[in-house]
């Protein structure tokens, strides 16, 4: 859990993505940013880092993954992010457990619990094969707030840690499929960003609904400088987050003046 948080914090993602440190909750053992991936097998499958593209623009045509133009949103009623499938933001752990069993047809004992000792949040974890069709096994994490004890975030991670058969090609494919889906979901046009390079990878998509609840899709990996000074990404993990309040997350913070 702390391993992923440290990697994201060091790269500045917590600020640039407007995501709380709770995005790492439940992803401790997945290693999506691990340097230990089989580099000999993956370097030849790396891809150039795309240029950033904000709402209403598209990334460079030569970039990979391929760029997609953000929709205007004028023909959409507007996407509402209220959780993930049957699990809704603001609901209790018991309700979320029931939703997980219903959504994925698993036995209750398949759900694991984990605490974050610094943020004082709590999470439920579940490995789900084919969460995305033909996408491999992902690890889901449902995070409950420090004060509210209710659901504040849902995350999904695809990596070698979640599926030993995961490949860079599969990660790129999953990222492209999800980005294309989100671009047509009717998020606020001025909140949408796609193909935004950051130190820890590429923000494939970021968007918010009318209540500023957010979706963030991050293709994580390592960059190398190739010929013609082209930065090439070797992907090691794909992270997807549904966040109820990215700007003011319900996590423990020391009161002002104590230190």
Give a quick precis of the structure.
This protein is α+β, with helices and mostly antiparallel strands.
Please report the total strand number as a whole number.
Answer: 12
**Rg from C-alpha positions?**
18 Å
Number of domains: 1
Average pLDDT works out at 78
Share of helix, binned:
10-25%
| Envelope shape | globular
**Poorly predicted spans:** 1-16, 18-76
Largest sheet: 10 strands, antiparallel
Structural class: alpha+beta
H/E element sequence: HHHEEEEHEEEEHEEEE
- Into which percentage range does the β-strand content fall? 25-35%
Number of helices: 5
Distance between the ends: 26 Å
Could you characterize the architecture of this molecule?
With 259 residues, this protein is of the alpha+beta class. The protein is 17% helix and 29% strand. It has one domain. Strands 1, 2, 5, 6, 7, 8, 9, 10, 11 and 12 form a ten-stranded antiparallel β-sheet that branches. It has a two-stranded antiparallel sheet with strand order 3-4. Strand 5 and strand 6 (121-128) form a beta hairpin. The longest helix is centred in the C-terminal third of the chain and has 16 residues, at 168-183. The two termini are 26 Å apart. Mean pLDDT is 78; it is low at 1-16 and 18-76.
